[in-house]
Write a structure and sequence with these properties.
The protein has helices spanning 27-42, 57-64, 76-89, 123-135, 155-160, 218-227, and strands at 47-50, 68-73, 94-97, 108-113, 137-148, 163-169, 172-183, 188-199, 205-214, 230-236, 250-257. The chain is of the alpha/beta class. α1 packs across α2 (57-64). 37% of the residues are buried.
């Protein structure tokens, strides 16, 4: 049985999967996917393993662009949504219930873990994940991933992460608010969520949740990747622009298996 992260998880991963796509599909998502595809193309990637596919944002985008891709996630609820999307689109895509820390899926030209996915891992679990990703890559394959940049987490950037929105999903009204705090010594970004859900005219249901992300500086990532058999090819901001140590909110890393 796959264990839940010790750092906690957003409720959308298991308890509220029907709301996962509310803030995971947007114009920003399309831009991120376009950047990822460009990087994969630059490294002549043909086959891709998305080890944290969720409901399939990157999977469907890359499939549309001609890649041989497999999606893996540890959330059966999110995988069910992804599989239903594939059926609706009449696409043949493998979605596998697995864990990036340990699942042996095969050998691929690239592995991706997008949207701060590695942040849900403790530092020791991230090292185990790097070893496992190494074993799922072809020789010379690339690992592409993003994570919040610890060096850029000042008070202004923390305030910029605040969420406060209302969306309608089918017959439900969702109001979601979130604020975060940072422990710079431990590298932990902790988020506090409140969800208010009203279905039809029923009584509003309120849920609260707290989870943390383990975040890194670019230097820490370089050291960890080198230690586990990878060579850093480049680091970018999430929009594909040049990475700036104390300004880029995200670090998008491309590393090669040696």
């Amino acid at each position: 049985m796959i264990k839940t992260s010790e750092l906690g998880l957003p409720l959308e991963y298991k308890k509220l999967p029907e709301f996962f796509d509310v803030h995971n599909f947007s114009q920003a998502t399309i831009l991120t996917n376009t950047v990822i595809e460009k990087l994969l193309n630059e490294h002549d990637v043909k086959s891709v393993l998305d080890f944290t596919c969720g409901t399939g944002s990157q999977v469907f985008f890359l499939k549309k662009n001609g890649y041989d891709i497999v999606g893996v996630d540890f959330s059966p609820a999110l995988l069910k949504i992804a599989r239903n999307k594939a059926l609706q689109k009449n696409l043949s895509i493998s979605f596998i219930d697995g864990d990036m820390r340990s699942s042996k899926i095969g050998k691929y030209d690239a592995v991706i873990t997008i949207f701060n996915a590695i942040g849900h891992l403790t530092k020791s679990d991230f090292q185990n994940t790097l070893k496992n990703i190494y074993n799922n890559l072809n020789d010379g394959g690339v690992y592409v991933f993003d994570i919040f940049n610890l060096e850029a987490m000042n008070n202004d950037s923390i305030n910029d992460l605040v969420m406060n929105y209302t969306k309608f999903v089918d017959d439900c009204q969702l109001h979601h608010s979130q604020h975060s705090t940072i422990n710079r010594i431990e590298g932990l970004l902790t988020s506090y969520d409140t969800y208010s859900i009203q279905k039809n005219n029923n009584k509003t249901k309120t849920l609260k949740n707290t989870f943390s992300l383990q975040i890194y500086s670019s230097k820490e990532l370089r050291e960890l990747l080198t230690k586990n058999g990878f060579k850093i090819l480049d680091q970018y901001s999430l929009d594909g622009s040049k990475f700036i140590e104390e300004k880029s909110i995200n670090i998008l890393t491309v590393a090669k298996k040696l």
